[in-house]
Amino acid sequence: MSQTSNLIQFVLNGEPVSAHVESYETLLEVLRSRFGLYGARESCGQGLCGCCTVRVDGDAVTGCIYPAMHADGTEVHTIESLEQQGELDPVQQAFIECGAFQCGFCTSGFVMMSRQLLDRNPDPSEAEIRHYLAGNLCRCGAYPEIIQAVQLAARRIRGAA
Fold first, then answer.
1. Is the dihedral of CA 40, 45, 46, 51 positive or negative?
2. Statement: the pTM of the whole predicted model exceeds 0.90
3. pLDDT tens digits, residue range 137-146?
4. Which domains does the chain show, CATH number per domain?
């Protein structure tokens, strides 16, 4: 801890936490190095690919460019927060069933964006899904399966409501 670090406090996946952070540290770095949460990954390092997507106060952010100091006083959710009491989130389950990943590197970002989409629009059209996920990149090309997974999760979420 240096003399220039700042203490931030926030709610992480439902639990109050605090960390000393440097002004140059990103939220992704802090989540991985201080809290051992490795689901979100850095790929491009420029906020262009979506692999590092986490949610801050309900909104998806690119963790690789989001200043950690901005998380002070917020509620942060990572992919690790979706599984509840041993049950996968419907989006996670649909991704598995549809084979919506190959290498898996981008999967957590797609799942987090898909979850946000379905929280805001439980019945999106295919075009709306494609538009919403346009900021997430999959190098393996699993896009058709990702669309199918989001559609399956949407049907299940609507059916449970």
1. negative
2. yes
3. 999 999 999 9
4. 6-81 (3.10.20.30), 90-160 (1.10.150.120)
